[in-house]
Specification:
Layout lengths: L1 E7 L2 E10 L10 H16 L1 H6 L4 H11 L13 E3 L5 E3 L4 H7 E11 L5 E9 L9 E5 L5 E5 L1
Parallel strand pairs: 2-5
Antiparallel strand pairs: 1-2, 3-4, 5-6, 6-7, 7-8
Length: 153
């Protein structure tokens, strides 16, 4: 496994590069390996919005987590306009898809090449700010056919 920083969405992100099921893991990232890696990084950069959009539906889960944190049973959820987190952060309620997408911040990237440089799965890990999921992260996968799939928490 190799780790290196790459420019992703205008930030330097530490990226792990794995070579699962290779007969021998390479000792260095040759130009051929670097080209395959850069192709995946370019895909991530070119599909920024689609990657974030794949997490649509997670806003509802974020709301569920916020509701679970409300200790007052007399609160009318239909009239609720904000929720205060344990750390004092006030969060608008309900959580809109746009607010949720804007809360996602890429923290980890792993490229896993399988047997050859043409077959690669990409794993992206996001944290939310505000922290809707109390430290849990949102996971998005890009499979070998470049399909973008939100895997949830």
């Amino acid at each position: 496994m190799f780790e290196e920083k790459f420019q992703i969405w205008n930030r330097e992100i530490l990226t792990a590069v794995c070579f699962s099921k290779f007969e021998e893991e390479p000792e260095a990232l040759t130009p051929e390996f670097r080209s395959a890696i850069q192709e995946k990084i370019d895909f991530i950069n070119q599909h920024h919005q689609e990657i974030l959009d794949s997490a649509s539906g997670m806003a509802e889960l974020a709301e569920d987590w916020l509701i679970q944190g409300i200790e007052d049973d007399t609160v009318d959820l239909d009239e609720l306009t904000s929720v205060t987190m344990e750390d004092g952060t006030e969060i608008d309620f309900p959580v809109t898809e746009e607010a949720f997408r804007n809360s996602l911040h890429l923290i980890d990237v792993m490229l896993d090449f399988w047997k050859n440089l043409e077959t690669c799965t990409v794993f992206l890990e996001f944290y939310c700010e505000p922290d809707y999921f109390l430290g849990h992260r949102v996971h998005i996968k890009i499979n070998e056919e470049n399909q973008i799939i939100c895997k949830g928490l």
